[in-house]
Amino acid sequence: xxxxxxxxxxxxxxxxxxxxxxxxxxxxxxxxxxxxxxxxxxxxxxxxxxxxxxxxxxxxxxxxxxxxxxxxxxxxxxxxxxxxxxxxxxxxxxxxxxxxxxxxxxxxxxxxxxxxxxxxxxxxxxxxxxxxxxxxxxxxxxxxxxxxxxxxxxxxxxxxxxxxxxxxxxxxxxxxxxxxxxxxxxxxxxxxxxxxxxxxxxxxxxxxxxxxxxxxxxxxxxxxxxxxxxxxxxxxxxxxxxxxxxxxxxxxxxxxxxxxxxxxxxxxxxxxxxxxxxxxxxxxxxxxxxxxxxxxxxxxxxxxxxxxxxxxxxxxxxxxxxxxxxxxxxxxxxxxxxxxxxxxxxxxxxxxxxxxxxxxxxxxxxxxxxxxxxxxxxxxxxxxxxxxxxxxxxxxxxxxxxxxxxxxxxxxxxxxxxxxxxxxxxxxxxxxxxxxxxxxxxxxxxxxxxxxxxx
Length: 455
What we know:
Elements: H1 2-7, H2 10-28, H3 33-42, H4 48-69, H5 71-76, H6 99-104, H7 106-109, E1 118-121, E2 131-134, H8 136-151, E3 161-165, H9 172-176, E4 181-184, E5 189-193, H10 202-212, E6 216-219, H11 221-233, E7 245-248, H12 255-265, E8 268-269, E9 272-273, E10 282-284, E11 290-292, E12 297-302, E13 311-318, E14 326-337, E15 351-358, E16 362-365, E17 369-372, H13 373-377, E18 386-395, E19 398-405, H14 411-425, E20 430-435, E21 450-452
Parallel strand pairs: 3-5, 3-6, 6-7, 7-8, 18-21, 19-20
Antiparallel strand pairs: 1-2, 4-5, 9-10, 10-11, 11-15, 12-13, 13-14, 14-15, 16-17, 18-19
């Protein structure tokens, strides 16, 4: 099928994509989708106690069902009497599920056969990809939740949408013709490749995006940032009153990136966190604050000794993963709780300060400790001429910074850039700066600004 697709003429490729997507949507938006969407909408104004009751009820039901249906959890909970777990306050009685344990035992974790559900594959940017299976019911729930969230800003399937994700859809002929997208004309979604984002092609992306006039943009913020920066560098103004909202996916969005995207595309940027594995949802409200949606799961913030902390690694239990149950799953991300959990948006789901990102999205210095993603991004402050950069750490003594530059990058800007790095990593660490023509994205289509390859 893949060979046939790439050998087909463009109109046939677009037809295949349109029909295939329509088939997928028939599964995602199945018979229970509307019921769940209506339910989520009706629960938007629930009190914290009401939300907590829903969470507790779902939690008890979910862990018992997982032990009953999953071969893995039968063994994993062999010596645990689940009747002693009366509420979420007893969750510490259950062991934590590591990502490697999930990978090794994935077939035994499944409660249904892949052919009876919907398969989702993780990107594999930090290890071997995972293949999880969702039940049709859980898929309906997850899309109902997403559409209820995005629907607050006018989105629904069928409205013109530009989608930037890790789909490999381009042929050699497409690249030769500077055409970096395919179109689902039935559902009005244009899919843009994230594998060809470089200085030679950015003008074609931007021009087509302007001409396409989407109402919504969904996708990797790093890709949208590069297109926006190209437009700014070349004086290309994005038309106003075109895009109603940008919904970033798959990557952590800093305040600086959100601001650039919002200003350049003349719209709001509304973030939301989940995962390909099926993590419960974290959403950004209209006030710009992040909330843990406790209807969709349990969120624990733990330190290395598995004690509750204000900022730490995220361990999740997701109520929409009946096909591949995730219970106390160490997902590999970090979040920071809020000191003031109440929000003026009136949604009583707990507020957090921010989603920090992946645990290995940092550089480690012997002098200064961890330099997280936000501080790495801020090394561009006061620097002109760097189009894109990536920092790679293979040892504790040194880092290599790959930079793609334009003609405005000179010795003065290099000096400022290096000073910014010295302010963060100290004076001992060796810093190698290498100019390159391009920096490759991962197999998933994501761009990683930090590649921490040390243990």
